[in-house]
Design goal:
Elements: H1 5-21, E1 39-44, E2 57-60, E3 64-73, E4 79-90, E5 96-110, E6 115-123, E7 130-141, E8 144-149, E9 153-158, H2 167-203, H3 226-237
Parallel strand pairs: 2-9
Antiparallel strand pairs: 1-3, 3-6, 4-5, 4-7, 7-8, 7-9
């Protein structure tokens, strides 16, 4: 049976709304929503080639990362992958903390005994912390749509670190500097300029004023030595 994309999109929307929103208990355990098929599926994160299934994958908010799926059809009938989804689970409780957007894709059909692969991009906007990422594939099989859940991957979501050379940060710094410079200029014109001009007027000498002249004063001769007085009298006599 061939499913159209609008039909698949309607099914995915109904599945997410019914399975996870209407039934709070469904968010604690998704095993009851999955169907056992002879269909092996695995995935990797290409930009993290050294991260294995038991390792911690680090991804960043605001950035897209790619999930590369690989699968093998071990059933005796054709299987078609028609949609992708998944969820981020709590590390301790297993409860779903955020769903990946369930999206229809152009059908990827795998005949019995054959393998295939495809990639899907995921964008993030989550609270920075550690999760268990569990991708899901929506499968068209035996005239029905079923859900196949992949393995979990420990994933730490982080905010993008801010660099001092980030263009947006540099622009913000330039705006702040220009703002402070403008405020300083205004403050100088309002208060500083008047203050410095007033100080200069106080210290400026008056025009035409004569410079101070040293004047002689009479000195009491009682404290002068007697020899010094005799010398002065002798000079006068001469």
């Amino acid at each position: 049976m061939k499913f159209s994309l609008p039909y698949v999109a309607t099914f995915l929307g109904a599945f997410v709304a019914g399975a996870f929103a209407a039934d709070p208990e469904a968010s604690k355990d998704t095993t009851s929503q999955t169907v056992t098929l002879q269909f092996a599926v695995d995935y990797s994160i290409p930009h993290l080639p050294n991260v294995g299934p038991r390792d911690l994958a680090e991804v960043y908010n605001g950035e897209e990362f790619t999930i590369a799926y690989s699968f093998t059809n071990n059933e005796d009938k054709d299987i078609s992958i028609v949609g992708v989804g998944g969820a981020f689970h709590d590390v301790k409780t297993g409860a779903i903390k955020s769903n990946l957007t369930a999206s229809p894709i152009e059908a990827v059909t795998v005949t019995p005994g054959e393998s295939g692969s495809f990639s899907h991009k995921v964008s993030l906007n989550l609270v920075p912390e550690e999760y268990i990422l569990v991708p899901q594939l929506f499968i068209a099989f035996d005239n029905d749509l079923k859900l196949v859940q992949a393995r979990g991957q420990r994933t730490e979501v982080k905010d993008v670190p801010i660099s001092v050379f980030d263009p947006q940060l540099l622009l913000l710094e330039a705006i702040l500097l220009a703002t402070f410079a403008g405020l300083g200029y205004v403050a100088y014109n309002i208060w500083g300029k008047r203050y410095f001009e007033g100080t200069a007027l106080v210290n400026k000498p008056k025009r035409g004023a004569s410079p101070p002249v040293a004047t002689a004063k009479s000195v009491d001769s009682d404290w002068l030595p007697e020899g010094h007085l005799r010398q002065k009298k002798t000079k006068k006599a001469n």
